[in-house]
Every structure is written in C-alpha cells, then in structure tokens.
Write a structure and sequence with these properties.
The complex is a heterodimer of chains A (227) and B (372). Chain A has 227 residues and is an all-alpha fold. Chain A contains 11 helices and no strands. Chain A has a single domain, classed as MetI-like fold. The longest helix of chain A has 35 residues, at 4-38. Chain B folds into 2 domains: 6-228, P-loop containing nucleotide triphosphate hydrolases (Rossmann fold, 3-Layer(aba) Sandwich), CATH 3.40.50; 242-369, RNA polymerase II/Efflux pump adaptor protein, barrel-sandwich hybrid domain (OB fold (Dihydrolipoamide Acetyltransferase, E2P)), CATH 2.40.50. In chain B, α2 runs parallel beside α4 (142-155), α3 runs antiparallel to α4 and α4 (142-155) packs parallel to α5 (172-188). The longest helix of chain B is centred in the middle third of the chain and has 17 residues, at 172-188. Classes of the chains: A mainly alpha (227), B alpha+beta (372). Chains A and B meet through α6 and α7 of A and β7 and α2 of B.
Amino acid sequence: MPDFEQLWSPIRLTLELATITTIVLLVLGTPIAWWLARSKARWKEAVAAIVALPLVLPPTVLGFYLLIALGPNGPGGALASLYGARSLAFTFQGLVIGSVIYSLPFVVQPIRNAFAAFGDRPLEVAATLRASSWDAFWTVAVPLARPGFLTGAVLGFAHTVGEFGVVLMIGGNIPGETRVLSVAIYDYVETLQWTQAHILAGGMLAFSFVVILSVMLVEKRFGRVGK
Amino acid sequence: MRHEPAAIEATLAGTLGAFSLDVAFAAPARGITALFGPSGCGKTTVLRCMAGLTRLAGRLKVADEIWQDDATATFRKPHQRHVGYVFQEASLFPHLSVRGNLLYGALRAGDTGGPERLTFDDTVDLLGIGPLLDRAPDALSGGERQRVAVGRALLSRPRLLLMDEPLVALDRLTKEEILPYLEALHESLSIPIVYVSHDIGEVERLADTLVLMENGRVRAVGPLAELEADPALPLLRAPEAAVTLEGRVSTIDDRYALTSLAVPGATLLVPGRRGRVGSKWRLRIGASDVSLVRRPVEETTALNCIPARIVSVAPPDGDDAQVNLVVALGEDGSGARIVARVTRKSRETLALEPGVQLYAQIKSVALFASGR
C-alpha cells in the first residue's frame, strides 16, 4: 500500500498553490482587464501583448527568465533578503509568483472580454442614477462580467494545477515545498511506481470534472434574475 | 401653454468628430420641452451634455444649480447631477429584477432638494408596472421595459428628466400604449422634462415648448403652437403640418353627444362626450383639415365655422400648388392661430391676403390628454 502522507503532500501543496494563485490573479487581473477593456490609450495593445506572452512562450523559456529574476541576483533575491532568505527560487512563494505570471492571460482575457462586452451604456445608466464610478464598478460592471470572472478563475486555477515546465524550472522537486502534483506524477512514472501515478492521475481527473461541473451549475443558478 | 420663468439655461458648443454643435436655449421650469429635428442634427448630443455624459464647452444651469460653467471651471459629473435619463433602449440592468432596477437610483438619491416627492408606490402605479416588480428585465415586452426605465429614472428623484427618443425603438402599437403614461407623467410631474424626438406626432401630444434644431444649431425656441404657425419655420411646410392648441370643455351637449371646447378666440364642437366641464384637452388641428370661406355657409355639415383673420401667407409668392395661410381666430383676429392649407388657385380666386376677414371651417380636431 502506498504511503498516504507521501501521496497527500503534493495534492495539498497543489491545491494551496492553485488557490492562492487564483486569488492573486483575480486581484491583480481585474484592474488590468478593466484598463484593457476601457482605456483608449494607444499603447494598451502593447500591454495586452505582454500579458498574453505566456500563451506563446515555451514554459521552459518563461521558467528560465523567472529563475534568473527570482534568484539571488534578481529582484526576487532582493525581495527575499528583506526577510533574511537568499532567493525566491525553489520556494513556495517563488512558485506563486511564477504561477501568477504564467496564468495571467487565462484570467485577464475572459474578464477583459466580459468588461468589453456590455459597452458603455450600463455604466452611463448607473452614472445617471447617482452611482459613482467605484460604485458602478462593483454594482454593475462586476455582476455583468460575472461569467468572465468565473471562466477566468476556473482557467487560472486549472492552469496552475496543471503547470509542469515552469514549476520544474523555478521550483524543482522539494517534497512539501515545491513538489506539486504534476511533478509528483512525473516522478512516479519515471520510477515505475504505477499505482501511485494511477491514484494521483485518476484523482486529478475526477477532481477536475467535479470542479468544472459545479462551476457550471453555480453559474446557471446565479445567472437567474427574478422569478 | 403659459410662459414660465426659464429654469434651464443651456449654452453648448464644440465638435465631435466631423460634427459641430453650437446651441443655446432656455426651457421653463415645468412641462415638456421637446428637442425636435431630423436625425443627426445633434439632439441626443445636447441631451448627453446636459446629463454630463458627453462634455462640450459651455454653461448649463438647472433650477438654481450650475451643472457646468467653463468660466469657473465647474463641471459636475453625471452622478453629481440630479438628473434622470431615459435612453432610446430601456437599458435595464439585466442582473437585477424590475424592483432592483427601480431601487438602484432610489437608494442612491437621498434628498436631492428637488420638488419631486413621488414614492415608490406612486411611481409604480403611475406607470402601471406593479405586476412586473419581481420579473427579470428580459422577461418584459419592449413597452414594459421602457416604462420601468422611466420609473427608474423618476425614482432617482431628478430635478430634470431627460428622455432620448424613448419610443423610437418601439412599434406603433406599443407607442400608443406608452403615450398615455407619458401624458400622465406630464400632468403629475412638477419637474421639467427635456424630450428628444424626430417624430412630430409625439411632439404634438407631449411638448409645451419646442426647441427646433437643424445641423447642430437651434433654429427656433418657443411655445409649440407659436412655432407650428410660424411661416418662417419648416414645420408649416411639412406634409402633416398642424397646430396644437389647448382647450377647456365649456359645455357638453348630451342630446347630440357633442362637446364644446373653448380655445382663445373661438369655441369648437367635437363629437363625443369628452370629460367634464372645465377639463382641459390638447387639440390638434391639421392644416389640411381647415378650409376657408369668405362668408359663413348656411347649409353645411361642418359644425365649426369660425370667424378669423388672415395673418400671413406662406410662401407669399411662387408657383407651389398649395400655400399655407396662418389665420387668427376671432372677429378681431386676437385669438389662437391656426394654419389652413389651400391651393394657390383658391387663394387667388378668393383674393386671400393678410388682413382679410373670413371664416375657417374646421373639418376635424384630434383631442389628446392635456399635460396641464
């Protein structure tokens, strides 16, 4: 029988990483998406392209630059030295930063599309009904863009759970610290521990299905207005 | 249609793309002021500027508040103006129920110091939207949606209600269904309404004051009836030219079911028992429904044959088949002015010139609920 703790550790780590990353992505991605959807600045497409870069870059390329950035001589190292560490590479924090950058386009794009889809009118209506921009953002824009937020959150979460190349480059394979699910499965297969690989992979499959199904059901439920 | 002190003073100028706008007008504190003109003449832009949704240079005063004054760098943002805005499409919030939509502005309005004290229930009754409160906006018909949009704007306690062609997206039947609600609104509201339209039919039924626009300029401003009978303005030349008067029921003849309405300088008979003695109606007299006779005709089916005096002839010369004669009702020509459209041939045969006394036969009069 495989050791339970050995199996559970990468699962817990992955869920922690994906949850924290998704929250950071929503907080960070929403203002970016808003600006991209509503700004008339000419250089906004350049910003959009930078946000979208992880879509086209090989994860190893991204991981390589992140490794340098997070390492002792990069900005990540400077950040780490604030609390006495040498580097952010090969740490959980480093993984969060890497995951956020890697999954940013998957969150920003759907939210930006949702913000752009309803146009100016609902916000103009809100303004003529005495709502300040801040008020209208929360009471009109965010509820109208809800499907975009949901899609963005699911994609961001799923993409973080499934990432492999970036994690390997910047996190390595430290049990309990950076050894996430995908790396663990790879490890088990490499060492011919098929049972363990089966349990993790099958569990992933079932979990992903349940998450996507419940998100769709929740969306249907909350999408209704009135009786 | 009394003259009242101006409550709205607007001066706006600027360019939007290739379009240039330069308007100035004043509107009274009560009643409906229609911004009327062909599509693309800048009506909606003026309305958007009044709401602060679009910014052009100028000055805007509403009641005792300055909403924009470039001289003092004053510009209130839309949410800081006590304005209600009804868009062409109802634009209800799809994520809120009808009740949620109605309350959105109401909850944020606070006390605007405006004169309007319409409660939620009053508004719902006035617009007949009680049964819809718990429905979702996408479960409403176009007319219902527009009524909710009007209610939502009113409940934000505006000091000025702006309506941008609220009926333009609706079919004819739905329009007819909503107009009575707008007429009721006209009667019960004590705030000014600025109503954008390119449909003279709506204007005749609703407006008290007319701002006639053309290519981003104001062509004329004044009481509706005056502008309708002004030979210098294009309204008179329109195929459906008419004059809108206000009349008060003086007697009702029960035997023949005829109602007498007193208008300045005359009493008009209309078929049917219309309201009570003393009640007010808005009368529309089409230029094609008025014929002129030199002497009263003895035996005729026309009930209304009223002494009148020719004020002007438009066009005074030329070779058009028809001319429009502005005539003032009453022996001395001191009453209301109406328009008669006659052929140039008749005009020459009867020698119809300004100052001539004659009789106006009015074949039909359309009655609408009066705004006052």
